[in-house]
Amino acid sequence: MSFIAIIGSGPIGGSIAHKLAGRDRVGEVRLIDGDERIAKGKALDISQAGPVEGFGTRVGGFGAVAAAAGAAAIVLADAANGQGEHSGEGGLALLRQLAAIETAAPIVCAGAAARELIARAATELHLPEPRVIGSAPLALESALRALAGLAIDASGVEVSLRVVGVPPRSAVVAWESASAFAQPLASLVPPHEIAALTARIPGIWPPGPYALASAASRVAEALANGSRRRFSCFVNTGRGRVAAMPVELGQDGVAHIIQPVLTRQEQTMMENAMERGG
Q1: Are 4 and 17 in contact (CB under 8 A)?
Q2: The predicted structure's pLDDT at residue 83
Q3: Where a domain ends, among 88, 105, 122?
Q4: 88 and 45 within one domain
Q5: How confident is the model at residue 275 (pLDDT cuts 50, 70, 90)?
């Protein structure tokens, strides 16, 4: 039976486990943390919610990274000790461990600080570029959709838009191709309000733990089960550059990087952002 492993049972990791279990589309979720007591406690709490919420996904808590061996997908989240998301030298050391334990499973970096880690995974650990991706851009996209929905007095669910580039300062929003209720968003929102929405991006970055968890759970589930959806993720785009781009996912990670539909001005902005790395 396939399972998804989550490294870290902090606020993000615990929420990812709950989201995956609640959707009931994977057989097992393994919550892994150096503090095994907390991992087991959160796993038990989620499992006990199953009869109330109507899901049967098995959720277990583990203390050793070796429990990730054989996973369909691995999510790098945040530690239970309050030190935040796995990043920097600690995150790189953890990736090194995972690479030795599990040689095939794609790895999703759930945190907002994933860009540097994804780049170093390829250049220093020589992991295949498609294998390590970051899901935070999808959470940012969701936050911006919610704000755009407020601007038209509707739900963000009705809004479709794409965020690419290098968030937060050099995020590029494809406003010309954005839509709501099958209409161009530009016909519903005046230009000054669109400009104001773009200006708010640095203030809504990083997204909160629940938004990050929601994005990471969808990406991990797509990797484990397959999906026709396209997701905005941090990916290696070549020459050591990592940026947010729409992608199609497969069992090995990124199957295809999709060229977003952008105006000439938006395309130039994205190229400049990627060239200078944000």
Answers
A1: no
A2: 82
A3: 105
A4: yes
A5: confident
Phi, psi for residue 93 in degrees, rounded to 5: -60, -40
- Check whether residue 63 and residue 165 sit in a common domain: no
Q: What CA dihedral angle connects 277, 222, 94 and 62, to 10 degrees? A: 150
The verdict on residue 91 lying in a domain is yes
Mean pLDDT of the chain: 95
For residue 250, being part of any structural domain is answered with yes
Convert the pLDDT of each residue in 236-251 to its tens digit.
998 779 999 999 999 9
**Cβ contacts of 132 within 8 Å, gap of 6 or more:** 95, 106, 107, 109, 117, 118, 121, 122, 236, 253
Q: Could you say which of 105, 122, 149 is where a domain stops? A: 105
Please give the residue range of the domain that contains residue 64: 3-105
Q: Residue 167: which CATH number?
A: 3.90.110.10
- For the full predicted model, state whether its pTM sits above 0.90: yes
Distance of CA 148 to the CA centre of its chain: 21
Q: What is the pLDDT of residue 1?
A: 59
Task: Check whether residue 141 and residue 278 sit in a common domain.
Answer: yes
Residue in 156, 255, 132 with CA at minimum distance from that of residue 211: 156
**Is 277 found in the same domain as 148?**
yes
Q: Is 79 in the same domain as 151?
A: no
Q: What is the CB-side half-sphere exposure of residue 235 using CA atoms within 13 A?
A: 24
What is the rounded distance in angstroms from the CA atom of residue 111 to the CA atom of residue 78? Answer: 8
pLDDT tens profile 73-94: 999 999 998 888 999 999 999 9
Q: Is residue 115 part of a domain?
A: no
pLDDT for position 278: 64
Phi-psi region of 192 (alpha: psi -120 to 50; beta: other; left: phi over 0): alpha
Q: Backbone phi, then psi, for 95, in 5-degree steps?
A: -65, -40
8 contacts 77 by C-beta, under 8 angstroms: yes
